[in-house]
């Protein structure tokens, strides 16, 4: 426990001693005050330090944020056992040694059962208040930590997405200029035609590179234009086959994905009139496939790997669906997921996280409401007990609000930790899992 906690317990001991000294002690002497202070310190420090050590131990072993239900159950059991032992010990020392009002045999004979039971209840109320306070403090820390983590995740994802998009512009320009430089030597007229067509394509690149997703129709039209450029360079050495379903045209893919994959096909394979490179673009089970016959060319230098890696990373930021790559001795195929919706870059990746965060936030509100109810109970009931005992000790009436409110509090706790919506959600998941296994 911290030094601050011991100082608080010291002040509680002094305050309790003054209260009992002035209101319940007939002889106002220094000896009686010191006795009151000693008894108050006995209860305050033993109960306070005992519950504090238990709370610190449970915080390390079973943090509220990681195992809320388990921690709540263990806290209840440990509070009951520990406070029962601590109260009996404090009462024994108080009545047998300090006040010398009873012998050990009388204390355990049943004469002090009511006092022991009463003090156990007071200790439990105070202990519950301390554990609830600990939960609220950890809840604040966890909430702040989650907010910071979510902000960092969002900033990181946005920065990563922007970085990936910024690769497209120079990458396309570099590859196009390489093609153009080759054509200038091989066929100047074709180079002029290529330059005119390249300006149209580059306009598309500038328009689409900042978008997260584009329609399959736009991407196919752009790919066809780009294929015309490649045919201009390679003439009959490269052939392109498009077989994309019309219903996929209104769905979405990442922009310039086809252009990057077409570049890869040309870059990593040789193409001649006798052995033409055949590139197919077609639909297959909610994916857009780009397949080419494998005619691997020897690389003079290692590839930078920007094209395919860029596509994979952009898809990973947008959806859980993966980009699949198939390679055999005869062909190389890349499958791009075709998306039905057009979401935002960060929100898609974190869609499930957002839903989970909303559920967690709702769960926290339920737990917070329960502990607010518990704290109110811990404050109000001891106050009613003191009023009852001071005003009319012969007529005990504090049982009724204590039991009635206590039953309601127990029901509230059961709904939050045991048989609430969390239990319903678990049962629903179990049933669905059983159905899926059939």
From TrEMBL:
GO terms for molecular function: phosphorelay sensor kinase activity. One of its GO terms (cellular component) is membrane. Keywords: Membrane, Transmembrane, Transmembrane helix. PANTHER family: SENSOR HISTIDINE KINASE YPDA. The keyword Membrane applies. It comes from the Bacteria. Residues 358-432 form the 2TM domain. The chain crosses the membrane at residues 7-24, 30-51, 72-94, 114-132, 370-390, 396-419. This is Putative regulator of cell autolysis. Residues 159-236 form the Signal transduction histidine kinase internal region domain.
């Amino acid at each position: 426990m911290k030094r601050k906690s011991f100082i608080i317990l010291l002040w509680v001991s002094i305050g309790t001693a003054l209260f009992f000294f002035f209101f319940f002690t007939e002889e106002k002497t220094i000896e009686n005050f010191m006795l009151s202070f000693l008894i108050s310190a006995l209860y305050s420090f033993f109960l306070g330090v005992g519950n504090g050590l238990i709370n610190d131990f449970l915080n390390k072993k079973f943090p509220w944020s990681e195992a809320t239900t388990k921690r709540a159950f263990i806290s209840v059991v440990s509070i009951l056992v520990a406070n029962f032992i601590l109260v009996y010990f404090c009462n024994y020392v108080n009545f047998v040694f300090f006040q010398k009002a009873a012998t050990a045999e009388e204390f355990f004979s049943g004469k002090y059962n009511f006092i022991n039971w009463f003090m156990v209840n007071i200790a439990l109320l105070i202990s519950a208040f301390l554990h609830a306070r600990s939960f609220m403090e950890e809840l604040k820390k966890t909430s702040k930590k989650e907010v910071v983590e979510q902000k960092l995740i969002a900033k990181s994802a946005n920065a990563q997405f922007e970085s990936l998009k910024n690769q497209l512009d120079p990458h396309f320009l570099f590859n196009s200029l390489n093609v153009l430089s080759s054509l200038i030597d091989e066929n100047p007229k074709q180079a002029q035609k290529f330059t005119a067509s390249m300006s149209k394509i580059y306009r598309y690149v500038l328009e689409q590179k900042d978008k997260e997703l584009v329609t399959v129709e736009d991407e196919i039209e752009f790919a066809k234009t780009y294929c015309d450029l490649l045919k201009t360079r390679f003439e009959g050495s490269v052939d392109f086959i498009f077989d994309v379903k019309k219903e996929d045209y209104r769905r979405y893919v990442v922009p310039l994905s086809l252009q990057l994959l077409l570049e890869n096909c040309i870059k990593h394979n040789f193409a001649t009139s006798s052995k033409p490179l055949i590139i197919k673009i077609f639909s297959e089970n909610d994916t857009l496939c780009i397949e080419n016959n494998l005619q691997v060319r020897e690389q003079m230098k290692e590839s930078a790997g920007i094209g395919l890696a860029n596509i994979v990373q952009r898809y990973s930021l947008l959806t859980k669906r993966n980009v699949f790559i198939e390679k055999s001795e005869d062909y190389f195929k890349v499958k791009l997921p075709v998306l039905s919706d057009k979401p935002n870059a960060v929100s898609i990746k974190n869609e499930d996280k957002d839903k989970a965060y909303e559920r967690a936030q709702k769960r926290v509100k339920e737990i917070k409401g329960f502990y607010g109810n518990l704290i109110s109970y811990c404050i109000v009931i001891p106050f009613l007990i003191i009023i009852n005992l001071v005003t009319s000790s012969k007529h005990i009436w504090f049982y009724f609000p204590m039991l009635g409110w206590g039953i309601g509090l127990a029901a509230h706790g059961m709904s939050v930790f045991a048989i609430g919506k969390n239990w319903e959600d678990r049962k629903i998941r179990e049933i669905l899992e059983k159905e899926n296994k059939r």
